[in-house]
Amino acid sequence: MSVEAREARQPWILLSPALGAVTLLLFVPLLFILVYSFWLRTATGADLAGFYLDNWQEALSDPFYRDILLGTLRIAAITTLVCALMGYPAAYFIARSRGNKAILLLLLMLPFWISYIIRTMSWINILGVSGGLNTFLIAVGLVDEPIQMLYNQTTVILGLVHFLLPFMVLNIYVSLEGIDTNLEDAANSLGATRWQSFLQVTLPLSLPGLAAGGLLCFVLGAGTYITPLVLGGPRDAMFANLVFEAIITQLNWPLGSALSLMLLVVLGALVLIYNRYLGMAQLMKGLG
Length: 288
What we know:
Order of helices and strands: HEEHHHHHHHHHHHH
Helix content: over 70%
Structural class: mainly alpha
CATH architecture: Orthogonal Bundle
Distance between the termini: 39 Å
C-alpha cells in the first residue's frame, strides 16, 4: 500500500469508533423506527409486519395531528422568543462582569445538576392551589381564595423557559465572550454612544450565539413531553405527548413510529433551513 493511500485511510481509522457508535446508537434505532412505521396494528393488538401506508395516511391526513403539530411549533417559537429576550441581558451581564464571572457561571450551571423532572414538578409547589404563591397572596390579603394557575398553556411555556433558558444564556455568553471589547471602545472613540456601539457592533457579532441558542431551544422545546404532561391540561398536549400516548399507553408502536418520524422530519427541515441561511459552522461557533 502506498504512503498516500495509507495517509488517506488514517482519518477514517481514527473516526471509526465514533462513526460506529453513531451508527449503532442513532442510525440503527432510526432504521427500526422507520420499519415499524410501515407495520400495521391489528384489531387483536398484534403488529402485522409488512409495508402498509395506513399509519402515514392517518398521521398526514388527520387534522387532529396537524393542529397539535402546529400548536407545538407555536409553543416552541414563543418559548424561544422569551428565552432570547430574557437570556441576552443575563449573558451580556455575565460576559461583561469582572471578578465574579466564575461564580455567575456556576450559578447558571446549577440547574443542570437537578433532575429535569424535579425542576418541572417544583412549579406545582409554587403555582398550585396550596402552593407558595397562592399562600403568599392570601396571606397579604390580595386574594380571598386560591387562584388556579396550573394546567394551561402559560404554565407549559413557563416550564419550558425554566428548562431551556440556561441553554440560551450559555450560547449567547460564548458568543459575547469571543468579541474583542476593543471594537466597542473604538466605536465609542469615533463618537458612537454605548447604545449605538451595542446595536452596531456587539449585537451583530453575537448573532451566531443567539441563533445557536434559538435553534437548540426550539428543537428541545418542540420535542419535549414531560413539561406539558406535568404542567399542561388535556388541551395543552404537544406532539411528543402523542408519540408517548401511542407507544406507552396504547402500545401502538407502528403509529407512534410514524408520528415520531413526522416530528423528526419537521424539525430536521428547520435545521436544514438554518444551515441554508446561517450555516452549521455558525452553530458550532455559538456552541463554542
